[in-house]
């Protein structure tokens, strides 16, 4: 019996040393099998107790069970230690330094060329003392046409055919301030032409001229960028959705010469220091006189010819590129905001409207308008 006791003690101390020295959870599992598994010596001893002499059974059984329990507890403790160590080491190895940049560096996005061009235009006019304003895209016919001197039935409305909106579909919260009904618009028997209370998708940014003057007394110097809509096809040079920047400058002393100086400055800032601008007579119902404005071509320098003698396709050989419509605000327009401090006999000003899409195409050499709307990253990424 002393032999068995000694064997148990020996097994126990061997196992204790091995467990204390185990360096992984896997090694620990092997030790458990070796010392406490079905074929382990200690297990065999416990199983064989019945064959021992009766007086030996108690002490041997006690010693073997005590050894078994001690080793089980030891295994458990060592396992927790090793697991904690493993976790610790894993955390240390996988630690992320959040102050380092991503790897590989994530490509930076870029603004759409239209937005970028819009910002360039805004910056130029902010530098001249203008303020940037925005207005609604769903607009009353009154602001889009009537108050811009296109009375109901006026043929110039046809040139800006657009999308009409059923006012009943508008959220009452968003419903636009109803405009005054003008006399003389009901024609007996005939269908009514579109009138001031109809609602449209705005065809230009010009309606903000009147809204801004209603909101602020003169002097006023504003630019208004924004999306516009017309019933147009979608091809390389047309789109039913396009972008404009409107300009309005009103005071008691503004003249056509100020318009010329302002647009010369704009042309130089936008298209290069050598640019000049020229006025050609034009027609817009809300300006009098009206002018079409051209800038000297930035590719051929105004000669209409490229260095190899061929015709410059950007300016079609003329040396000039049309960029906007403009003129002196028609006194009839001031008539609609007379009560807001704009007496047509005392006040004057100029207005202009330019297409952002067209200017972006010219400046960045984009030949197909649709490229602005497709959001192809290969196109976007070229303009950072
Ligand atoms: N709203 C005009 C259009 O879309 C452009 C325009 C012309 C705006 C003359 C103006 C202006 O302010 O004075 O065709």
Question: What can you tell me about this protein's structure?
Answer:
The structure is a single chain. The chain is of the alpha+beta class. It has two domains: 2-92; 113-382, Bira Bifunctional Protein, Domain 2 (BirA Bifunctional Protein, domain 2, 2-Layer Sandwich). Helices cover 38% and strands 17% of the residues. It is built from twelve helices and ten strands. It has helices spanning 2-21, 25-36, 41-47, 54-94, 113-127, 141-144, 207-215, 256-271, 331-335, 356-364, 371-374, 377-380, and strands at residues 131-132, 138-140, 164-165, 199-201, 220-229, 241-251, 277-284, 287-296, 320-329, 348-355. The strands form two sheets. It has a seven-stranded mixed beta sheet, with helices on both faces. Strands 2-4-3 form a three-stranded antiparallel beta sheet. A hairpin with a 2-residue loop joins β7 and β8 (287-296). α2 (25-36) runs antiparallel to α4 (54-94) and α3 packs antiparallel against α4. It is elongated, with a radius of gyration of 43 Å. The N and C termini lie far apart (90 Å). The relative contact order is 0.10. The structure holds 3,4-dihydroxyphenylalanine. Residues 204, 206, 246, 284, 287, 325-327, 351-353 line the site of 3,4-dihydroxyphenylalanine (DAH).
């Amino acid at each position: 019996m002393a032999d068995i006791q000694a064997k148990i003690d020996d097994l126990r101390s061997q196992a204790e040393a091995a467990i204390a020295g185990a360096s992984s959870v896997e090694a620990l599992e092997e030790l458990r099998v070796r010392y406490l598994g079905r074929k382990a010596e200690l297990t065999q001893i416990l199983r064989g107790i019945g064959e021992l002499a009766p007086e030996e059974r108690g002490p041997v059984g006690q010693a073997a069970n005590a050894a078994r329990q001690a080793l089980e507890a030891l295994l458990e403790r060592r396992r927790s230690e090793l697991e904690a160590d493993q976790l610790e080491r894993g955390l240390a190895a996988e630690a992320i330094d959040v102050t380092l940049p991503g790897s590989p560096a994530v490509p930076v996005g870029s603004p759409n060329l239209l937005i970028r061009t819009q910002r360039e235009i805004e910056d130029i006019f902010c530098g001249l003392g203008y303020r940037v304003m925005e207005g609604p895209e769903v607009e009353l016919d009154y602001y889009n046409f009537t108050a811009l001197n296109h009375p109901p039935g006026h043929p110039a409305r046809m040139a800006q055919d657009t999308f009409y909106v059923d006012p009943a579909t508008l959220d009452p919260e968003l419903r636009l301030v109803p405009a005054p009904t003008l006399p003389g618009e009901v024609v007996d028997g005939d269908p009514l032409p579109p009138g001031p209370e109809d609602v449209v998708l705005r065809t230009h940014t010009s309606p903000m001229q009147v809204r801004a003057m209603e909101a602020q007394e003169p002097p006023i110097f504003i630019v208004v960028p924004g999306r516009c809509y017309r019933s147009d096809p979608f091809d390389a040079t047309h789109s039913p959705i396009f972008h404009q920047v409107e300009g309005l400058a009103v005071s008691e002393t503004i003249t056509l010469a100020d318009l010329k100086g302002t647009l010369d400055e704009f042309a130089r800032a936008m298209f290069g220091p050598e640019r000049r601008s020229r006025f050609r007579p034009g027609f817009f119902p809300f300006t009098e006189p009206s002018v079409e404005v051209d800038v000297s071509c930035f590719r051929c320098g105004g000669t209409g010819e490229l260095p190899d003698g061929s015709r410059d396709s950007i300016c079609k050989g003329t040396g000039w590129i049309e960029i906007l419509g403009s003129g002196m605000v028609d006194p009839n327009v001031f008539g609609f905001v007379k009560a807001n401090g704009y007496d047509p006999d005392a006040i004057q000003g100029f207005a202009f409207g330019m297409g952002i899409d067209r200017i972006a195409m010219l400046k960045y050499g984009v030949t197909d308008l649709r490229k602005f709307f497709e959001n192809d990253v290969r196109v976007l990424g070229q303009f950072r």
